[in-house]
Amino acid sequence: MASGRSPYERSTYRYSPLLAFLLVPNSFIHQSWGKFLFSASDLLVGILIRSILKLRGVPEKTCLSSVALWLFNPFTFTIGTRGNCEPMVCAIVLWIIYCLMNGSVLQAAIWYGLVVHFRVYPIIYALPILLVLHPLNLQTGQKLVIQKWSQIQQESSLYSSSTNLFCMANPLLLLRNLFTRRRIIFGLLSETVFLIFTGVSFYLYGWEFLHEALLYHLTRTDPRHNFSIYFYHIYLHHEHAFSVVEKLISFLPQLIVQLVLIVRFAQDLPFCLFVQTVAFVAFNKVITAQYFVWFFCLLPLILPWSNMRLKWEGLSCIFVWMCAQVHWLMWGYLLEFKGKNVFIQLWLASILFLAANTWVLVMVIRRHIYSSVFLLEERRTSSKTRKLQ
């Protein structure tokens, strides 16, 4: 791009041209400009984690522990310093959460449209974001009331669950609350921003951009370096086009899990985004190590609401997840570097890794204290009434 050529001349470049533009200073300032940029984004993620937790009333000591989980995680800072843009995406996602909590819906919509253009996967966050913009949460002319952190939140858990069930049982109420002013504005504005950046990129680089940066990720099939349970099937049929039935079978489990998690946890937005991302990565057709950063940045946001003890449940989750990954890497090493015919063993290791991710996800959900980001209007009124009584 610095010499006036297309970034897509590099066969492995699968991103928006905006990323290449941000890295142009590599050519005339310093060759490690990009790594400094990504490392700065890594630090920014830590700042945003603390800001979001403070906004929700989490004590300072707990905030610092949560921030340290991100900043001193060798996996996350290795991804940024090796030259990967994921910390930038994580920073934008956290900034969107912060804007929504502050009531800056317009700003959140602008950044959401940008991040979906920059990296496709945050599109899965659209529905929970729209659901959290509940008319009872965001009454026109009223200040947002954020649900503060506390040790005991069982009452809010019961209330939120019954509210979700009530809305699902009343289609007319659900339909009436669906098309609200804030939801329409958020959807239109984010879509406009996405189309502007995508349109400019298409004008500059044509169909090559559209295929490499967007469509490629929808049909991506990697036969190597892939943790997914679908990798072996992809490897066996890599030179042949996949049928509609095959694509549907691989997509349906992911879609069903996403919808269930959204319906159940949408009002607890950070937790919903976390479990969504873990499930999305675990059930995806392609899983690479950099994808894990997507949910690592959200993990510190949910820890203050977890009843899980580090000893022994927390350690067992870490141990199971790490061992399943190391087990996969062992077989991957034998295949890639030693040339051993261990495809079946590697496929079984992928199944084991999916089981480990599922078990850890279930453990996290069971030990989580459900807490809506915003106090619903009905709940605020009932609380005031109890205080007066």
TrEMBL record:
One record GO biological process = GPI anchor biosynthetic process
Q: In which pathway does it act?
A: Glycolipid biosynthesis; glycosylphosphatidylinositol-anchor biosynthesis
Kindly report, in one word, the top-level EC class recorded for this enzyme.
Answer: transferase
Keyword match Iron: no
- Cellular localisation: Endoplasmic reticulum membrane
Gene Ontology cellular component terms for the protein in this record: endoplasmic reticulum membrane; glycosylphosphatidylinositol-mannosyltransferase I complex
How would you describe this protein's topology in the membrane? Multi-pass membrane protein
| EC code | 2.4.1.-
Q: Which UniProt keywords apply?
A: Endoplasmic reticulum, Glycosyltransferase, GPI-anchor biosynthesis, Membrane, Transferase, Transmembrane, Transmembrane helix
Q: Which family does it belong to?
A: Belongs to the PIGM family.
Q: PANTHER family, from UniProt?
A: GPI MANNOSYLTRANSFERASE 1, PIG-M MANNOSYLTRANSFERASE
Q: What protein am I looking at?
A: GPI mannosyltransferase 1
